[in-house]
Predict the structure.
Amino acid sequence: MKQVYFHIGMPKTATTFLQHNCFNTMAGVHFAHGSEDSDTALYSIFEEIARSNPTFYHPAAHQDQLNSIFQKIDADKAVISNENLLGSPYFNFPNHQSCAETIKNLVPDAKILLVIRRQDSWLESSYKQCLRHGFFVSVEHFLARRNGQFIDGRFPVGSRVQIDPRQLDYGKFVKTYAGLFGCENLLVVPYELLVAEPQTFLAKVYEFIGTEGAYITHGTNRNTGYSKFAGTLARLLNRFFVSEYHTSGFIPQQPLFDFFKSRRERNTLYRVLSSLTSRLSINYFLETVVDRTFHSGGRFISPELAAIIRDINRDANRRLDKELNLGLDRFDYY
């Protein structure tokens, strides 16, 4: 039997950095995530959990396939990194319970790694991410806020993205995983520790997994999102571009890219054209042209609103810190 570890997020907590600079360097550990150079077969089994309707997903139907994959792995340990397993962030992680229960059914002895981030900071980063995904909602709508008050989240047709800051009690998520897998099989670490003391953060992770890995202490800010100026432009332009989350636009992302990509093995010209057209996207333009030329500071969530969000979650953060001794007071969680 393999000892399996699941890194389930949260999103926007340096997941990409950890996947490409740390998890893939761990000694004696088989690593699976979404990149083509990883074990995509193992990753896909659990990606399906995150994407499926739990009513129609039957773990037993996938158990033989999973066992077959594990039998082919030489290492005694495996780490599966998939932040979607925490649930859909744009809906306040509503399926996190079903994902956790399915993991428990498939891998009963799994261990769970969860990285959290202070709620106001996480929401700021998540809003910028939603702009990168093609949404064009306002910050007020994104935070389920109207006329200065938080409201019960309702999702208008064509704009299905909203997060209620009142539903970001991380202790609730921790309770789910601790109840299923046991506190001793759960590691919760704040993202802010990775930023402030990366070696300390990584030492905790490697000790939990029982391995050694690289101690890269820079580059945690990959996928940092748009600046205030680029994000404002994105919100305006996203209305017109087709994306995964906005299919009613009329300007395609990366026009002709798929055509040249399917033919790039034929000759050098197609490879060059494939490379060039891969950069014809709104994200590439805003990140590499606009932000490098006109980068502006400022946040989408005002300091006043950020303080309100911190106040909402202050007591819950204090309770979680008291229970797990995470040192959250160092990073102004409460």
Remarks:
- Residues 45 and 66 are 8 Å apart (CA to CA).
- The chain has two domains: 3-224+301-331, 228-294.
